[in-house]
Specification:
By secondary structure, this protein is mainly α. The protein has two helices and three strands. Helices cover 63% and strands 9% of the residues.
């Protein structure tokens, strides 16, 4: 004789296995997504570190180049003005034969001027500077 109860019992076992399988699959997908987010974050931080280091190294090279040449003469205008910290150098301000007024920029003053210009450029371009803190 055929028993309906055994068929129902088997159906309950199948439903239990389906729930366990669905939960296992969901946990596995969650782990994969979290692992992907972790790798993406690490990659983004490494890229930010590389970008920052390249920019810093470039700035150091510009300073070194200017220091090796004793500074750089630039035309005097509203921007840049003569460096107030170089008043003790007699050749700080010179005039060319055609009458162009030049002033000496040492590496530190040059770097400050470049960062000031960069800040103004970023404010105009992006509407503000965004600082990323790297731990």
């Amino acid at each position: 004789m055929f028993c309906f109860r055994s068929g129902i019992q088997g159906s309950k076992d199948l439903t239990g296995y389906s729930i366990i399988l669905a939960l296992t699959w969901s946990v596995l997908l969650l782990v994969i997504v979290l692992w992907g987010l972790k790798l993406t974050r690490e990659d983004s931080q490494e890229n930010a570190h590389i970008y920052t280091k390249v920019g810093f190294d470039k700035d150091i090279l510009y300073r070194l180049w200017a220091a090796c040449h004793g500074g750089v003469y630039v035309p005097v205008s509203e921007y840049p003005q003569p460096n107030p910290y170089l008043t003790d150098i007699p050749e700080r301000d010179i005039k060319t034969l055609p009458g162009i007024q030049l002033t000496l920029m040492n590496p530190a003053y040059m770097t400050r001027q470049i960062y000031k210009l960069e800040k103004q450029n970023m404010n105009n371009k992006n509407g503000g500077l965004y600082y990323v803190y790297i731990n």
